[in-house]
Amino acid sequence: YTVLEYFRKYDDPYESFKHHAEYLCRKVDSVQQYDSYQLADQMMKIKYATAPDYSKRLKKMIDKVDLFLL
Q: Among 50, 3, 36, 43, which Cα is nearest to 20's?
């Protein structure tokens, strides 16, 4: 596989979360229109993660911690 983005070091968690939110908003069209499962699928489309089963793993975590309620 090809690495499209390299890891970054952040000064604090806030900066990390902010950067990731901005990245996703740039890459995924209209983030607000998706539910949690659809967003997991969209993240696979934009190659957010290299694991081929990332979407499946993310959906499992969504179910485990009830993130779909957010």
A: 43
What are the average pLDDT values for consecutive 10-residue runs of the chain, which has 70 residues?
A: 73 91 78 77 80 89 77
Cα–Cα distance measured from residue 63 to residue 69, given in angstroms and rounded to the nearest whole number: 10
Q: How far apart are CA 21 and CA 15, in angstroms?
A: 10
Has this prediction a pTM greater than 0.90?
no
Residue 43 near residue 54 (C-beta atoms within 8 A): yes
Q: How far apart are CA 58 and CA 60, in angstroms?
A: 5
Burial class (CB in 10 A: 0-12, 13-18, 19+), 58: buried
Residue with tokens 């694991």: 51
